[in-house]
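Running this now, will post back.
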Amino acid sequence: FEEWHSALEMKLYLHRFIHHIGGLPDFSALKFTKYNQYESLVLPLVKWLQERGVVFQYGTEVTDVDFDLQAGRKQATRIHWTRDGVAGGVDLGADDLVFMTIGSLTENSDNGDHHT
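Update: finished.
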């Protein structure tokens, strides 16, 4: 971390959530599910996807994604992974969809002070 990182994070969060500022004093901007978020959102989505043939592969670290960059289009062509120490992967076709993120804003962060 650098001294300016906290200010940058605050700026990023302001840009992301500024449209909710009016509802913060009374929490009306917050959305709550009937149960916890896992049971209300994640489990139904996983079940729905599995019913449609999606296979979830847990305990797997994606190590790289190959792309074809032609004619102004970015097409993922292969996903590389490691599972239980064994390298693997899958080739992707033109009709395959890949949804990925590079992680969260706070992943691998730690507490500190102005000197550490």
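Strands lie at 60-70, 73-83, 86-91. More later if anyone needs it.
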